[in-house]
Amino acid sequence: MSLMNTDLHSSLKKYFGFSKFKGLQEGVIENILNNNDTFVIMPTGGGKSLCYQLPALMKEGTAIVVSPLIALMKNQVDAIRGISEQNGIAHVLNSSLTKTEVKQVKEDITNGVTKLLYVAPESLTKEENIEFLRGVQLSFVAVDEAHCISEWGHDFRPEYRNLKAIISRLGDDIPIIGLTATATPKVQEDIIKNLGMNDAKVFKASFNRPNLFYEVRPKTKNVDADIIRFVKQHQGKSGIVYCLSRKRVEELAQVLQVNGVSAVPYHAGFDAKTRSRYQDMFLMEEVDVVVATIAFGMGIDKPDVRFVIHHDIPKSIESYYQETGRAGRDGGEGHCLAYYSYKDVEKLEKFMSGKPVAEQEIGNALLQEIVAYAETSMSRRKFILHYFGEEFDAENGEGADMDDNTRNPKPKEEAKDEVVK
Ligand code: ADP
Ligand code: MG
């Protein structure tokens, strides 16, 4: 083991208490310590934060971390402060700080105390912040959730487009680290182009989830009965049922309850108190099933979710991957079942028709891909991974027989006939 690696492992242990790196972390961190641009693509939960936190703690100067969500930043800052005696080791810079607080942040940065400075892109565009940051020693800039730069991603934020210009003003050759869990080639191209990272070393982890079983069933008028049967076959196990509309969420939750399934509804129309009550009931296993819109799931970490059902087809393969990704986090069984009818696709198209043309075009293109997924007769795992630019060996790859098409191959025509149009 090289001297550097020994160093890295002892720092990992010292700061985070871990004895091993996860996945590609070590290579990423070495690349950052060598002052190179770095592009990190890892699924959610892959351990991306540590990829920039550890080198930030080891390097001279302050690392700027751009992140879109204030709540996320606060969590991370609290976690980093927990590993140090010095409160100033990590700070958030945003418009909610008082003058005194801003003064303290600036003082800590100037004195070399602050290793990680979290900022929202809006704060980074402020001229007085740029002026200040130009004058201090910076180690690198990490752009977390870098897919926000792309209209092809699921969370486009126009302010992310200005980042490159601002970073260039902060100093010469400041290394840039881009991080995302979005694996689609289009989004990656956008990130590299927008951040000017053509020379970046790319670290891409596999997105294969071998313990998840993928299945698509035609959606008939008996879909509710079918779902009830499925849930009863998984009695006592935790599962999520996603529906497109709030109305459907409430109806289906009720239908399940009436049929003896312990279920709660969840959507953004409930007040915060009700939402957190239902969420807790699911997390504490007072109920087995949560019927929800996509408002449910962000940041939910329940390791033993055994099934994720989509009552309606999701709007893209990427959303489907993220939503089904909540199943089987513990490595155990995870059944991902989607109901599909072309009528639902038309509904989604109609949904989009009020939006700007460019947005509609992107939305429709993404929708056509999920339609192709639903209608395919090939390995669904291969289909998903191909979409993410990943080659999958459908015969011998990990999880190769874990989908309906591979288990029960059927002639294409027959499969098509079953689809309700
Ligand atoms: P991501 O941003 O990729 O979704 P996070 O950075 O939030 O993932 O990390 C996910 C989890 O993995 C966190 O609980 C983190 O503490 C844990 N983790 C990260 N690196 C390691 C490691 N080397 N060993 C053990 N756990 C780790
Ligand atoms: Mg993250």
Automatic annotation (TrEMBL):
It catalyses: Couples ATP hydrolysis with the unwinding of duplex DNA by translocating in the 3'-5' direction. The keyword Lipid biosynthesis does not apply. It is an enzyme of class 5 (isomerase). Residues 29-201 form the Helicase ATP-binding domain. GO terms for biological process: DNA recombination; DNA repair; DNA replication; SOS response. Its cofactor is Mg(2+); Zn(2+). It comes from the Bacteria. GO terms for molecular function: 3'-5' DNA helicase activity; ATP binding; DNA binding; four-way junction helicase activity; hydrolase activity; metal ion binding. Its EC number is 5.6.2.4. Keywords: ATP-binding, DNA damage, DNA recombination, DNA repair, DNA-binding, Helicase, Hydrolase, Isomerase, Metal-binding, Nucleotide-binding, Zinc. One of its GO terms (cellular component) is replisome. Residues 222-379 form the Helicase C-terminal domain. Belongs to the helicase family. RecQ subfamily. This is DNA helicase RecQ. It comes from Flagellimonas zhangzhouensis.
